[in-house]
Amino acid sequence: MARGSPGTPTAWHHERRTGREEMSDVYDLHIDTDVTVQLCDCSREDAQAVFGVLDRFYQLEDTATPSPQTATGPTPTVWTATFDTAGGEHQEVHPTALTGLVGATLSGGYHAVDEVQKVLASGFEIQSQQAVSGDQETEARLLLASR
Asked: Which of 33, 52, 95, 145 counts the highest number of beta carbons within 10 A?
């Protein structure tokens, strides 16, 4: 695409300054502060412990609690919450006990996911770590244990 053509950053910024298109400053700076945290292979108590650490540090945006299942066999349970890394009380993080290992998947913007990983590393031992990177978002897979 030629410089200054529609769809390029130069053209977009020009359109924004002339008032033809309204976008928020957050979008303009490509800052994504929300991180979705999915926990699996853990008890309700362990999920609450992990989310409790993050909730004391960041602002909880959304949470989903699994509903009772009618299946006859074992079914996987995934606990999900979204945290805004720009908000919250940012309280000190202390080591937190878990009854077992907790699989955690973090997804969101690069900086925001990195910040959540640092907070989790303050409260838990991270036994393994993998990352899958995209264009503007990343996904980190962690295995959390008690310190």
From this structure: 33
